[in-house]
Amino acid sequence: MRFFNTSAAVLALALSNSCSALKATILADTNRDGKVDVKGDTDIKGKAEWTSERGALILANIGDTDRRCSKKLPDNDSASEVNEAFLDKCNDATGNVQRNAKYLAPLRTLPIAKLSYSAKGSIHVTDDAAAENIRVFVKEGNDWTYVAANHTFTAQELQDGLELGVDARDVRRPTWDGKAQVHFTVQDGAQKAEDSVALRVAPVMTHHHLQLAERVFSTDSDYTGAQTTFVSDLKENVAAAGIDEPVFLFSNGDIWIQDFFEPGYTSIPGPDGPIVLRVMIRSAQAGRFSGRDIFRQLRNDKVGAVQHPGDGDTLDSAGNLETVPPYTLNGKSYPAGRIIQGQWDGRKPLIHEFL
């Protein structure tokens, strides 16, 4: 006589179900080595939480490829003292078209086997501020297609694994710290699986004085005749220093070039080294229309521009913004240097909260 072991049968069924349970996995460059590890586990630990040591970085894709936006800006002669916010409203990240894919940070989903034909997947971003500022794209052939929150991926796409890219519409601001959570959801019949990965927009950094100069700026505005001589000498010395880029001359009548903008940059790790976008930072002096020229004249596919609202006085000139070289103090390291600014009677420059 045979006895059927009910407990063993239930255990076997449970193991069978757990082995076939639906699993969704989305990965980013969490360990910041410039690539997404889809074969090992180096990007798995702590991927859903962003910290100073781990967590993927992405770029604000705010250049101006083909100078599409820059060409539309009014010249300073027709400027009136209005809200300067329009300067930020057009760049490569405007809308949902991918214009500069070299600044996309990679995301990957692992292939999911044994899905039914009706299985579907989706990607969405949280929280509200992040959802407004983060763009996700999927690679389709040689093109990048924008992934809206209501976009549906097919069973075949999920089985193959998704090649995704992500960028941001804007840099970190006092109103948004640049953090975002990207969620990957898969539904197959009654089964549902979810996963997420934490990202953060890379900060805008300023250059310290031990970094090598690659471009020099001056003005052709000359009220005494001395500037013409100065520019001639400057060009000779720039060439002698081995700087390939010619001296860039502004023609806006503002002779204090260092005061209306500060050159900066933002970067993320890449497979062949850092991926860098230069970012020109306008002084927080909305009434100083020469600052518009960094948006009009300097942006291209490798250079973006930002501004912080406010119409400050001389305290807010960019000449009051310098960066000391890297150093270590009391066991704390500052590998990118550290910004130094002056203040008057306890009043800080307006742009201080942006930096």
From TrEMBL:
It comes from the Eukaryota. The keyword Signal applies. InterPro entries: PAD (IPR004303), PAD_C (IPR013530), PAD_central_sf (IPR036556). Residues 1-21 form the signal peptide. Keywords: Signal. Residues 193-344 form the Protein-arginine deiminase C-terminal domain. One of its GO terms (molecular function) is protein-arginine deiminase activity. Pfam families: PAD. GO terms for cellular component: cytoplasm. This is Arginine deiminase type-3. It comes from Fusarium albosuccineum.
